[in-house]
Recover the amino acids of this structure.
């Protein structure tokens, strides 16, 4: 439950991303600057968190072992996650982006077969190939149904072009974020803490952000003061606080693909935080009764996902134990 709690807290701070990105877009800011400035601002704070003792030295030693993998998965986990999110923000409101982002719940579950997990059985711990948690996946569908109920009325007023440009990039991001995160956990093998891993991935993604920042400079000029300030707060709330909370939560359950999917499912609640944020700060309309019903589906689906994922895990262990008895 500790991992679930951290996941919910991270979803609150992640919500700042969608609200502030929409605010920057409405004020005329470039999505290229919105994306790259966040990681430029994150870097010095992460350095301060890691510098001192052997933590910085350990990180550098680990990065030297697999520099191309840090570059690749840092770019995938951070670059191909956040750049598409910002791009989508230019074509749709924050609530639609946050709602579509919940596809990461399904993406995280479907990625399970690409990784191995450690299961403690009566005969001792064993490593097996991850399996898709079908029971938990069915609960994820309830969450997405709730999201659809909340946003159906709003999405029906958008053109097909805007819907596609606000949805397709987020689908890419929903795959890239859990994929990059899990790949880096495998590469680190538990040798680095959350702060070290986030700093390493940020460093690995820097070439990508430099390229985006350069393009922004030549196409849109320097960012405005408002966009710079808001990007700073996105970096603090979402880039530092939310990312560290989320990565810490996934660290607790990194060897259990079922529980990992449950932690990723907690991100669904950020839809509620984004809706409240847009109502307060961007004068968005109040939710309709259908939207309120959708919120209940999201919260209920998240709770059921957590419970069913635990039963999935118990069934898997019992199946392995019984197989060993008759082997």
């Amino acid at each position: 439950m500790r991992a679930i709690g951290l996941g919910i807290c991270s979803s609150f701070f992640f919500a700042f991303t969608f609200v502030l990105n929409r605010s920057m877009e409405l004020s005329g800011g470039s999505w290229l600057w919105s994306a790259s400035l966040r990681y430029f601002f994150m870097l010095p704070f992460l350095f301060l968190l890691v510098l001192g003792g052997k933590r910085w030295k350990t990180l550098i030693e680990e990065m030297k072992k697999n520099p191309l993998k840090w570059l690749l998965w840092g770019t995938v986990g951070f670059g191909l996650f956040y750049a598409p999110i910002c791009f989508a923000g230019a074509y749709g409101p924050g609530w639609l982006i946050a709602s579509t982002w919940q596809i990461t719940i399904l993406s995280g579950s479907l990625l399970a077969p690409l990784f191995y997990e450690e299961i403690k059985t009566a005969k001792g711990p064993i490593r097996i190939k991850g399996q898709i948690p079908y029971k938990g996946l069915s609960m994820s569908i309830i969450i997405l149904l709730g999201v659809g109920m909340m946003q159906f009325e709003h999405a029906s007023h958008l053109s097909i072009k805007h819907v596609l440009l606000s949805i397709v990039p987020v689908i890419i991001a929903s795959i890239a974020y859990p994929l990059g995160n899990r790949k880096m956990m495998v590469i680190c093998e538990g040798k680095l803490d959350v702060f070290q891993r986030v700093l390493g991935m940020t460093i690995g993604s820097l070439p990508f952000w430099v390229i985006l920042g350069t393009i922004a400079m030549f196409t849109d000029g320097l960012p405005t003061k408002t966009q710079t300030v808001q990007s700073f707060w996105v970096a603090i709330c979402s880039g530092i606080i939310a990312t560290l909370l989320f990565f810490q939560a996934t660290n607790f359950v990194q060897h259990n693909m079922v529980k990992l999917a449950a932690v990723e499912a907690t991100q669904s609640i950020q839809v509620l935080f984004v809706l409240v944020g847009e109502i307060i700060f961007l004068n968005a309309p109040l939710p309709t009764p259908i939207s309120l019903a959708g919120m209940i589906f999201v919260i209920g689906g998240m709770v059921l996902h957590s419970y069913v994922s635990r039963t999935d895990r118990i069934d898997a262990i019992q199946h392995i134990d019984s197989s060993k008895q008759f082997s």
Summary: Residues 2-325 form one domain.
